[in-house]
Amino acid sequence: MDIAAAWPNSLAALGPAFYTELAPTPLPDPYLVGINPSLAAALGLDAQRLASRAGVEAFTGNAPVAGSRPLASVYSGHQFGVWAGQLGDGRAILLGEIESPAGPHELQLKGCGRTPYSRMGDGRAVLRSSIREFLGSEAMHGLGIPTTRALIVTGSDAPVRREEIETSAVVTRVSPSFIRFGHFEHFSARGQIDELRRLADYVVDRFYPECRGTPKFAGNPYAALLEQASERTAAMVAQWQAVGFCHGVMNTDNMSILALTIDYGPFQFLDAFDPGHICNHSDDAGRYAYNRQPQVAYWNLFCLGQALLPLIGDQELALAALESYKTVFPRELQARMGAKLGLADAREGDRELLEATLKLLAADRVDYTIFWRRLTRHVAGDSSEAVRDLFLDREGFDRWLARYQERLGAGTAEAAQRMRQVNPKYVLRNHLCEIAIRQAKLKDFSEVETLLALMQSPFEEHPAHEDKAGIPPDWAQHIEISCSS
């Protein structure tokens, strides 16, 4: 199939130390599970053509995409805080880049067979995890959070063993770049400094050209790169925390150098607010609990700093580059949480108000998304009873509400408008995904399509889908997601 005039592959230009060229491994009788028309349009692609039989074959890895140069990249990383050594694209193959109205983007097939970096894995993805990534990445994009995206999902009845026998799928991921912290760690750990410099220069020149002339670091572009990655990562994680997103497996090989949310495995949006919530069933020690994500992000950046140190050349300079995380994260989080409360400006005492808000939510395990949406409606003129009904401690809520209303003051119409733009009605809750997955296993993909549309405009009312914005059913508490998700 030919969908682009040319498929440049700038990663391949870095040299054979960075990748292995190989073709995807075909799957029998592939079928279309879902397609993202809005992303296709943004990339200048024809969604109907992608959804055709030829498109399904191509994006399952069964037929070559004319002009592409498939390859799998090598990287290393820390997993659950432990150095794991060489990793790499164990089930993903990069087709190359397409030039689009949105700029150059890489397209990558995930789940298309073994690569030299699969270790003991089978190189496959299952239908369940592929649907979760397809919908999860689009949900994050709809919320305005930096993320990789997903263009198309195809399935096959070919069996794959996880906790049980499941069926195969391939998801086509889209990103300006899939380079991770782990790419830098790989070459640094091996003492391959020439390759490390080549990689850093590539990232700087392609994505961070301003790093070439940063006076703060006396012309050291690698320290400037570390600072840019730190600040962007801080802003991204602040957005995660504000919307109640749990990544679940923040290994250094799952951290994007562009500060994009990447690798949707055991992710979850909070239901009941529990700061210590652990969404990953495999995370026995709770390393990646919701309230630990900001600290883990900094730890991962420190690992990136260590990897870049041979290029930066000065440990104090590297530490100075990392220091901005400690300023940017609290500032970004304060701004985003203030916006959720409808506050137009920052004042003394706001931090205490925000802390009191979260403490109140945690004490009664109040549904995080529903609280903010009902509070928005109250500020817009509705009674406070719908918000109050979420709490067991009604008197505690009444005291908090009086304090909040005093801080909010006049101009509630403007405040409500601000709140509508940051407090979604819909997030991709686990049970919604689970329902879509169960139907998809029966070859009914209508719920995947419905959720995709909702997640693309999560701040809108969508009155026909009120059931998807309500309190989760009791069985949702028993859904377990793990690294195989």
TrEMBL record:
Source taxon at top rank: Bacteria
Active site: D253 (proton acceptor)
Binding site for ATP: G88, G90, R91, K110, D122, G123, R173, R180, D263
Cofactor(s) required for function per UniProt: Mg(2+); Mn(2+)
EC class: transferase
The reaction(s) this protein catalyses: L-tyrosyl-[protein] + ATP = O-(5'-adenylyl)-L-tyrosyl-[protein] + diphosphate; L-tyrosyl-[protein] + UTP = O-(5'-uridylyl)-L-tyrosyl-[protein] + diphosphate; L-threonyl-[protein] + ATP = 3-O-(5'-adenylyl)-L-threonyl-[protein] + diphosphate; L-histidyl-[protein] + UTP = N(tele)-(5'-uridylyl)-L-histidyl-[protein] + diphosphate
GO-annotated molecular function: AMPylase activity; ATP binding; magnesium ion binding; manganese ion binding
Sequence positions that bind Mg(2+): N254, D263
Record key words, sorted: ATP-binding, Magnesium, Manganese, Metal-binding, Nucleotide-binding, Nucleotidyltransferase, Transferase
A UniProt-annotated Pfam family: SelO
EC number(s) given by UniProt: 2.7.7.-, 2.7.7.108
UniProt similarity note: Belongs to the SELO family.
Role noted for this protein: Nucleotidyltransferase involved in the post-translational modification of proteins. It can catalyze the addition of adenosine monophosphate (AMP) or uridine monophosphate (UMP) to a protein, resulting in modifications known as AMPylation and UMPylation.
NCBIfam families for this protein: PRK00029.1 (NF000658)
Protein name in UniProt: Protein nucleotidyltransferase YdiU
Species of origin: Ramlibacter tataouinensis
Lineage: Bacteria, Pseudomonadati, Pseudomonadota, Betaproteobacteria, Burkholderiales
